[in-house]
Design brief:
Blueprint lengths: L20 E3 L2 E3 L3 E3 L8 H10 L3 E2 L4 E2 H5 L3 H6 L10 E5 L3 H13 L5 E6 L4 H4 L11 H15 L4 E6 L1 E3 L2 E2 L1 H10 L4 E5 L14 H9 L5 E4 L5 H11 L3 E4 L9 H9 L10 H18 L2 H15 L6 H8 L5 H8 L43 H6 L5
Parallel strand pairs: 3-4, 3-13, 5-6, 6-7, 7-8, 8-11, 11-12, 12-13
Antiparallel strand pairs: 1-2, 9-10
Helix pairs in contact: 1-11, 4-6, 6-7, 7-8, 9-10, 11-12, 11-14
Length: 390
């Protein structure tokens, strides 16, 4: 069976057990959403994932101020292929004024069908300036930002994504969820870790259960440790959440969305791909990047994906060193021709974390940030210094 020991006893979804998740007028089935990931969830990657299975596929994060000012690089990051639908974009903002202006631009250009907002980024340069996962500790500021987005979005649904809190002592997720619900958000998503945890340890799904109990009129989405398709079933059954958000689990494994579609439809998953089949997906992914960006940039960007695609394969040793130096698509083709196409997928890698794996941190915050939690003034430095992509 193509599952780890943890999930061997998890039954497939029964007919009618789960429903599509409604994000405004968007019906998402299966109830699966691709998490925005900086430098990863560009249009080629989103389209590749969508090819394997239905769901909602969110862009990488863009900064509200630069979007409002129509910054060239930000506009490129926020672009969609003509065949992408629905178009889902995540924005980062710390100032209600610039959030409002960014949303106005998106609405005026008929650019998106869904707007997500990032209040969960734990990166030091973000929280150290008072942004990302730091914002929910300032409830009034959070409320003002959400109000600004929802007010100017019109019929476009706005959702927000956040973490449990800054650390175990400063948990903010219940207040964040209630604010989102009260201000007209279409859904909320919780990454069940604190900012202090970064991506380490296990996500505590119990927090998702508590958020679902507190937020009752809009969908609650769970995020954290969806490494296999049946993890999504376990999360929804255990917490009662309305859908799942998948991040690092699909890195180097876009077919995870096919597996998710299967288990939610009551079907057994297909056999995992051999190395040869993985190599074919790699070539397709790289070709899509080359068609979207210039070839050299695309291939340099693809190097990190090579590590994820080949994780655990024995043939990785001879392939990876060469692939991490590629600058042309032709080079990649020649290197992958030497792969042992019949090598089976390494099942031991199913639950091994990929992507960001740093340990716990002491969350960086601006001096005096916690002195007045009622303060609703935007952190000026964060607004001025943040670049798109987080």
């Amino acid at each position: 069976m193509y599952v780890s020991k943890l999930n061997q006893e998890v039954p497939l979804a029964a007919e009618g057990e789960f429903e599509p998740v409604s994000i405004g007028k968007i019906e998402v089935w299966p109830p699966v959403i691709l998490a925005p990931m900086a430098g990863i969830t560009n249009s080629p990657f989103r389209r590749l994932c969508r090819k394997f299975g239905a769901g909602l596929y969110v862009s990488e994060m863009v900064t509200a101020r630069l979007l409002a000012e129509r910054h060239t690089r930000t506009t490129q990051i926020a672009s969609f292929s003509p065949d992408e639908t629905p178009r889902s974009l995540q924005i980062y903002g710390v100032d209600p004024y610039y959030v409002a202006e960014a949303v106005k631009v998106l609405v005026a250009d008929n650019h998106v069908d869904h707007i997500d907002m990032n209040f969960g980024c734990p990166v030091r340069k973000v929280t150290g300036n008072g942004g990302g996962a730091a914002i929910p500790v300032k409830k009034n500021l959070l409320r003002n930002i959400v109000q600004a987005a929802v007010k100017h979005a019109g019929d476009i649904p706005v959702t927000i994504k956040f973490r449990v809190g800054i650390n175990d002592k400063l948990q903010t997720y219940l207040d964040a969820g209630k604010i989102a619900e009260a201000e007209g958000c279409a859904a909320v998503a919780l990454h069940a870790r604190t900012a202090a945890q970064l991506y380490s340890g296990q996500a505590d799904w119990e927090h998702i259960s508590r958020l679902k109990e507190a937020v009752t009129t809009i969908p609650v989405l769970g995020n954290g440790d969806i490494w296999e398709a049946r993890d999504a079933l376990r999360m929804m059954r255990q917490t009662g959440c309305d859908g799942v958000v998948v991040g690092r689990g699909c890195l180097g494994r876009p077919w995870l969305f096919r597996d998710l579609a299967d288990v939610f439809s009551g079907r057994e998953q297909e056999e995992p791909p051999t190395l040869g089949q993985v190599a074919d997906v790699m070539l397709e992914h790289a070709k899509m990047l080359c068609n979207w960006f210039d070839e050299r940039y695309a291939m340099i960007t693809f190097r990190k994906h090579c590590t994820w695609y080949l994780k655990g394969f024995r043939d990785r040793v001879k392939l990876q060193g060469r692939l991490l130096q590629i600058t042309t698509y032709a080079e990649m083709i020649e290197i992958l021709k030497t792969a042992n196409r019949d090598e089976p997928f390494p099942l031991k890698e199913l639950r091994r974390p990929r992507g960001k794996r740093r340990g716990n941190q002491r969350v960086a915050l601006p001096p005096g940030f916690l002195d007045d939690l009622e303060d609703d003034a935007p952190p000026i430095k964060a607004a001025a210094e943040m670049n798109s992509g987080g």
